[in-house]
Amino acid sequence: MISPMPTPTFSRESELIAQGFTVCGVDEAGRGPWAGPVVAAAVILDPGSIPAGLNDSKKLTEAKREALFTPIMQAASVGVGIISAARIDDLNILKATYAAMAGAVAALPRPATIALIDGNRAPPLTCRCETIVGGDAKSLSIAAASIIAKVTRDRLLHDLDRQYPDYGFAAHKGYGTAAHAAALQRLGPCPEHRKSFAPIRALLGN
To answer: Count of CB atoms within 10 A of residue 58's CB?
Structure first.
């Protein structure tokens, strides 16, 4: 018999809340794409009002992520940080991701005193950080942040698709698909492409 995949819990948050911390989960979307911003979210869940069905955004369908977005926004304290493609080129993607995370935490309507970060590297934040590898599948707060970041970024890419309709941004969300590569070969990069990324840099070099 195959064991069910583990789902995120609120156990680490509960331990920290019992110690007097205000806990936020932090996650990002869009580190790997060739185009568009990187987006981070910070979420402080209300222990008495956690929306049902939270999970790592990658394990949810687009429809399910969209369905959870409003309940999270209504029940939790949420901050979002967005770093543009041009800024990614200026900073590099790691520093841009950290800047998005710092922006998300700073945008929280009430301050967190500890941030649970998905991954094994902590960004420089104004509060204490605790990293959790695979955190979006382990922590409900990080899972909620992953959903907010992903839905926010996907909506921004739909907006970019209306601005630049020939690139297919609504379908591939800026990731390096065959269709995206073909559009780049045909059209060249647009202002929303990350010119420091190797495939775009190679095109510009040609």
So the answer is: 11
**Which of the 8 DSSP states describes residue 50?**
P
Q: Tokens for 134? A: 């695979």
Q: What is the pLDDT of residues 84-115, one digit of tens each?
A: 999 999 999 999 999 999 999 999 999 999 99
Half-sphere exposure of 169 (CA within 13 A, CB side): 25
CA dist 131 and 80 (Å) reads 19
H or E segment and range at residue 202: helix 198-205
Name the CATH superfamily for 11-205. Ribonuclease H-like superfamily/Ribonuclease H (3.30.420.10)
In angstroms, rounded to a whole number, what is the distance separating the alpha carbons of residues 144 and 44?
9
107, 99 contact by CB (below 8 A): no
Torsion region of 174: left, alpha or beta (phi above 0 gives left; psi -120 to 50 gives alpha): left
Delimit the domains of the chain by residue range. 11-205
| Residue 205, C-beta contacts closer than 8 angstroms, at least 6 positions apart | none
The model's pLDDT over 145-195, given as tens digits with 9 standing for 90+, comes to 999 999 999 999 999 999 999 999 999 999 999 999 999 999 999 999 999
With H, G, I as helix, E, B as strand and everything else as coil, classify residue 126: coil
Amino acid at 100: A
Axis-axis angle for helices 198-205, 178-187 (nearest 10): 30
**What value does the CA radius of gyration of the chain take, rounded to a whole number of Å?**
18
